[in-house]
Write a structure and sequence with these properties.
The structure holds two protein chains of two kinds. By secondary structure, chain A is α/β, with parallel strands linked by helices. Helix content of chain A is 32%, strand content 22%. Chain A is globular, with a radius of gyration of 19 Å. Chain A starts with a strand and ends with a helix. Chain B is built from ten helices and no strands. In chain B, helix 6 crosses helix 8, helix 7 packs antiparallel against helix 8 and helix 8 runs antiparallel to helix 10. Classes of the chains: A alpha/beta, B mainly alpha. The interface between A and B is medium-sized, with 32 and 21 residues.
Chain lengths: 260, 252
């Protein structure tokens, strides 16, 4: 089986940035697995996820998602975009719409253009949306407006919208960074569980090693825009995570006082 | 004297110069101003008591003004939807929205009464030139408001729908519209209020509505009837404002 995503020799700098956000990154996301991108803030985790979602351009290297190579100069064809689902860190929900509307928004790329424009889902679309709501444990919130929900409920709506899209690859950017540890475990369990039940691959970023170890089969450590390690989660050593988060060596010429 | 002090002094001299120039060249005769007092009192005397027999004309005129404002606003909304999209920074390229915005600024710069006079010349007397004039004039402001409403919404849900495979119009419908709807409702009500106020006087140039009667009665020296119509206009303006305040609260 070909990998869900394959990155070779990827280098990318955000427009206007002096230093590249990613430098010579090579990694492989095996199909059907749950994989965690682990690393401190600013390491480049979000950049990798956005790039796999086809939202960045101007990178160098080779990237293919679900067996299809990405073009660094143009966005992926619209028809292929529903295959890659994205759970945004800030949820990116339409606050004044209902939960069901927001989840149905995930179906828009799968509907005929006219149905999408009119917002008139088929019974099949509705069933998929309702199943996604039930899987996320928020079936009773369907008619509530998103602006009346808590952060944890919003995160579940964001995941349900992604699931309604029927993606084969689920990319989740810090899906639990807003939640307390108990809720974080629940949400990651439902995200990785729903992916597995649908035969989809899940790639999520996190800065919490214990959560990554619990919910991912494979962990890729990212630091300063490079791959620090790429191991099965059972083989992740504490020293490796410690090195991932160790403070950078003070730059020569920088006074110690400024660092502390 | 610093440069800032000098700038302030120059501004004062400029303003004083403008006032003096206006006085000297306008040929203000104080004697006329003095003799105007009794004449104004005479006018007011002839306006009082207002003639209540013109109720039928008031009803007919204000109903027509209301129709002009409603249909003119409808026309402005219909024109402003596509023009608002074309004037939006986030929907179209600078090569498109810049000229559209310039066009809207031009439209705004033409006074309504001037558009109405041109339309009376083009399509004849009656409410039709008034409706066209209101629709045209109001579009200059309303399309700009719509464009600002489109550009003012949160971008994240739009990116999310794009990532899910939704095209530009579908994103406009499902990510932008739900966010901008209250702003559009508020702006449209505001513009309707302005349209109603402004169309009260359109009759003076023959473009229909209650203003026609004010003009007719003043020209035929029936000041008591003109007074009744004027009072009706004032009452309508106050009523419109009260209604607008109530509606705005509803959409807050």
């Amino acid at each position: 089986m070909s990998p869900a995503a394959q990155i070779d020799d990827l280098t990318f700098a955000h427009p206007g940035a002096d230093l590249p956000a990613l430098e010579q990154v090579s990694l492989q996301i095996p199909a059907g697995e749950s994989v965690a991108l682990l690393g401190p803030s600013g390491a480049g985790k979000t950049t990798i996820l956005a790039l796999l979602d086809g939202r960045l351009h101007g990178w160098r290297g080779r990237v293919s998602v679900l067996g299809v190579p990405l073009d660094p100069d143009r966005p992926p064809p619209r028809a292929s975009r529903p295959d890659t689902g994205f759970v945004f860190q800030e949820f990116a929900l339409v606050e004044r719409s209902t939960v069901l509307r927001n989840v149905l928004n995930g179906r828009l790329g799968r509907m005929s253009p006219l149905r999408a424009l009119l917002g008139s889902p088929t019974p099949h679309d509705l069933e998929i949306a309702r199943t996604a709501l039930a899987d996320c444990g928020i079936a009773d919130l369907a008619e509530r407006r998103v602006d009346s929900l808590s952060g944890g409920q919003r995160q579940r709506v964001a995941i349900a919208r992604c699931l309604a899209q029927e993606p084969r690859l689920i990319l989740a950017d810090e899906p639990v960074s807003h939640l307390d540890p108990a809720r974080a475990g629940e949400v990651l369990a439902l995200l990785t569980g729903a992916a597995r039940a649908r035969g989809a691959t899940a790639l999520f970023s996190s800065h919490q090693p214990d959560l990554a170890r619990r919910f991912a089969q494979r962990i890729i450590g990212i630091r300063d825009g490079r791959v620090a390690f790429d191991v099965p989660s059972s083989e992740l050593k504490d020293e490796a995570t410690a090195a991932l988060y160790r403070e950078a060596e003070p730059l020569p010429g920088l006074s110690l006082r400024a660092v502390s | 004297m610093g440069p800032r002090g000098f700038g302030g002094f120059a501004t004062s001299v400029l303003i004083a110069g403008a006032i003096l120039w206006s006085f000297v060249t306008t040929d203000v005769e104080l004697s006329r101003l003095v003799s105007a007092g009794p004449r104004i009192a005479d006018f007011l005397g002839r306006m009082f008591p207002p003639d209540p027999t013109v109720m039928a004309e008031i009803r007919k005129g204000s109903a027509e003004t209301l129709r002009i404002a409603i249909l003119g606003s409808l026309g402005a909304v219909i024109l402003s939807i596509p023009l608002g999209i074309l004037a939006s920074e986030t929907m179209v390229s600078p090569a498109l929205y810049r000229p559209v915005r310039t066009l809207l600024a031009f439209i705004r710069a033409i006074p309504l009464i001037l558009v109405a006079m041109l339309m009376v010349g083009a399509v004849g007397l009656g409410p039709l030139p008034g409706i066209i004039a209101v629709a045209f004039h109001a579009t200059g402001m309303l399309a700009k408001f719509y464009a600002e409403a489109i550009d003012g919404v949160s971008r994240a849900p739009i990116a999310a729908l794009e990532s899910a495979g939704a095209g530009p119009l579908v994103r406009l419908r499902h990510a932008i519209w739900p966010q901008m709807a209250p702003v559009v409702a508020r702006d449209t009500i505001f513009r309707f209020e302005l349209n109603l106020r402004e169309s009260l006087i359109l009759g003076i140039v023959g473009a229909g509505g209650i203003g026609f009667y004010i003009q007719t009665y003043v020209r035929s020296f029936q000041y008591d009837k003109a007074a009744s119509v004027t009072i009706a206009v004032v009452v309508m303006v106050i009523a419109i404002e009260a209604l607008n305040v109530a509606l705005r609260r509803r959409f807050a």
